[in-house]
Amino acid sequence: MASIIPPIHRIPTETLSHIFIFLLKEDKVEEDSGYAYEDEEGDDSEDEGSSDESSVVDPLSALLVRSVCRRWHAVAESTPELWVDLVGPCGSHWTHRALSLSKDCSLNLRVIHSDPTSYDPISFQSLLLKKYCFRSLFIVFPRLPDAANGELQALLSSPLPRLESLVLDGGSSVSDYPLGQSTFAGQIPQRLKILTLHCYPLLLQCPALHAPLTCLKLWDCPAWESMNSLLGTLSNLPQLKIFSWEVMDDDTPFLNLPLSASFEANPRLVHLPHMESINIRTEVERVTYLFAHVVIPTSCSISALSEFHNLQHDPIDDLYIALDIAFGERLLTAFPSTTDCQRSGFKKMSLCVFRLDYSAGATTIWREPTSTSGPATFRLGFLPLPEDDEYQVHTHTLSIISHILGNWPSTSHAVSQLHLHHNGFHFANPSHFTPENRPYPRLLGLLPSLEHIRAIDPAHGFFSAIAHPPREYLPLLRQLDLEYIDLSTGDYVDLVKVLKARGDISNKETSARPPMTFGLKYCSLGGEYMPDVRMTLGAY
Questions:
Q1: Which residues 6+ apart lie within 8 Å of 209 measured at CB?
Q2: In the 8-state DSSP scheme, what is residue 179?
Q3: Helix runs in 278-418, H state only
Q4: Cα–Cα dist 426/157, whole Å
Q5: pLDDT digits 0-9 by tens, 131-160
Q6: For the whole model, what pTM was predicted?
Q7: Which of 43, 61, 158, 252 is paired with 449 by a 20 to 30 Å CA distance?
Q8: What DSSP string describes 431-472?
Q9: What is the dihedral of CA 193, 194, 200, 202, to 10 degrees?
């Protein structure tokens, strides 16, 4: 009789239960514990990951194994670990079932309360009986009713001894309920590692800021009133690995310091020896002050996006000094100068519009360091106040990029690949500037090792810059890829001639190199759509 029973039904119950648990763990979906900041390269994006980023199981997995047959149904409902992720995402019915079936397991609450009328809303009141079990809280509530808000505050005001991750997203407006001294009943959550807040005020008396945090991310969250108070908080978080702070609301009271504060003598430094990634977007004087006053590993990835609302009160030379101290000296330590001919620094560089929206500014991203002592990603963005034409790059933006490339060798000397995605990288009146001072010649002339350019809808002046003789700059250029651009037949013919001539001259004057290649993708050529064309301009 036993021989006709399918093998799968002969698996012992305990073994089957372990298989279910293993399968669900394998089926984990990466959960952004802090909404990773927007990468500015679209398809080229690389997330700033960390071992502390949390993950969740697809909640439907437990329901699927439960529905296969009666035996699996019984085994699934007697396996508490299968139900820890069903608290919240499938409505109140399955939340109540999961609270019961999970027994004493640690729970992961996930509630997205964007529209209480669109689905069966979760009552936070019903969760209080199992509050001691919560390991993570992920709650999005841009339209939470007042009654539910009160229930949420009751939950957050309770001791949560198992809590490891707290993510609160209040939507587009700042919540009226700050995390303060009474949060967690005034007790420090000893297991809390991840704290992520979006439009949710954080008071400095909050016990969470005394927890052993490894990840702290704040978006438009009133928390600090000065840079010194921010540094005071960071000094109490020596285990921090990921820090993100973005400020969009200019109305939040904050004591701004002049740029000169970034190069004060004998600054009080905050040591953060475990830091892996810092992301900050705020006023430029806050950005430079922060990085001039923290000691972090040279391998720490950095994203610093700066806005210039107060720059008109400080000379541009002060900004250069502040940037050199905050970032330039850091890169010199990460990439020490070498005596041989090998160039040290980043191999890849991208230049795009600031935050994909502001052509007056620009964001530059460097990747692929030649040494493990350097950061995997180094991103600097600058947004001056727009002048007459907000759709072209600001002169300050170009000057800052030129200063960086010309004075920080690691940002230019080893760069072999350049990705251009800035449709405002031009001046309205180019005749007012000498050719070498126009945006593209200034940029390309500072990248002596460049071999490959990928340009998306390049602005006016790009082709004339490429036409410069290779003896002047770009002597190593071997590949040009254009995307999303309309070319006339005449422009195309002229460009091919220029590229072929470049290859001919380069190969006559140097040792044999790969032939020049030229590609068009998603382009229009003489009115005809060209989805993907690649050609080799001569073989040498």
A1: 202, 233, 236, 237
A2: B
A3: 284-292, 316-323, 329-334, 395-407
A4: 54
A5: 899 999 998 877 666 667 777 888 899 999
A6: 0.87
A7: 43
A8: GGS-GGGSHHHHHHTT-TT--EEEEESPPTTHHHHHTS-TTT
A9: 30
